[in-house]
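call fold(seq) -> tokens
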Amino acid sequence: MGEKLFRGQILDFLEDPGVTETTLEALRYLEDGALVTGADGCVLEVGPYALFRAKYPGAAVHDYTGRLIMPGFIDTHIHFPQMQIIASYGRQLLDWLTRYTFPAEAQLQNAALAKTLARDFVRELLANGTTTCLAFAAESAVSAEALFEAAIEWNMRMISGKVLMNRNAPAVIKDSAAEAYTESEALIRKWHKRERCLYAITPRFAISCDMEELKMAGRLHAEYPETYIQTHLSENRDEVATTLGLFPGCRDYLEIYEQAGIVKDRSVFAHGIFLSDSELDRLASTGASIAHCPTSNLFLGSGLYDLRRAKTHGVVTSIATDVGAGTSFSLLQTLNEAYKVQQLQGCTLDPLTAFYMITLGAARTLKLEDKIGSLAVGSEADFVVIDYQAQHLQALRMQYLQRTGHWNL
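ret:
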């Protein structure tokens, strides 16, 4: 396959809009632009269509005039097995896990079912513009295998791992620290950096992992430092209280993970709603980040994440769907809810910052900004096309912006 030229309105980010003096310093926008990709599937150049059409006369042209081309969306926390139970009758977190999540995850010991659901999961993500995700599989190794296989089939960038869980769960989905180590290491050796797959060591959370299991996760990451760590942190008040009761020697939730050695610059902690100032400062000092999951937090009544407070402490936040307590695969819909969560706390999440958080910002969180999250030369040609005319009301909104001139960046 040779060079391809994609024509349309082009938007990507050069920097976080929140740290630049003007909006224009943070982004690149071309009203009639061209994105040129090479035979290797990477970006060759981005520039004006009129200039690049002549510069690349042999390129196959894909004309998306009047539509927006931007980097693919990045979801930093989602549960593959939970797509089956999305938006199930709303219980609080711990009840919800017991009633819905654990039974759903137990089904994914069935390899055939895992393969079918993995393909459905990947298709649903791509249909919503998500081209990279950090996903929990189930406790079974076959669930992780199925997800990586489906990602390769669709050439999707997938970061995932089998869930580690040795207590406070049904026996059928529990492992031991020794079993978890053996299975996880085998998965790392087979899948990490294979095609576009990367591995995330995945202890569910401190309630379902004792210190032996958590420390095993820390040792495994020390042995394979280019892997990721993903888990949950301070999502729900009852969860926090239960966790501290299980680890009475720890002053706060984060200290449990610190003692286990899993608070690293490649650690992504989902939720982080009820963190103390000390915990936020310690997270910031390590470079660990928080994945904010607004639709899940609202659906389960967990609480409101304070983005402004986290930023004040220097903690990097990305945006995540957290399907299936999260109620939509769409990161656009998730940004809609993130906006509302911040409004309820007297803070406005501006749209450019929001889009940065699901593109370049998330890529930086995952240490992948050289590959995804922007349309920089040499990056993977990983992008989406947004059609302003997809819905009638959306088309009317766009027409208004064009008439008034407010659509110009």
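The first helix runs from residue 23 to 26.
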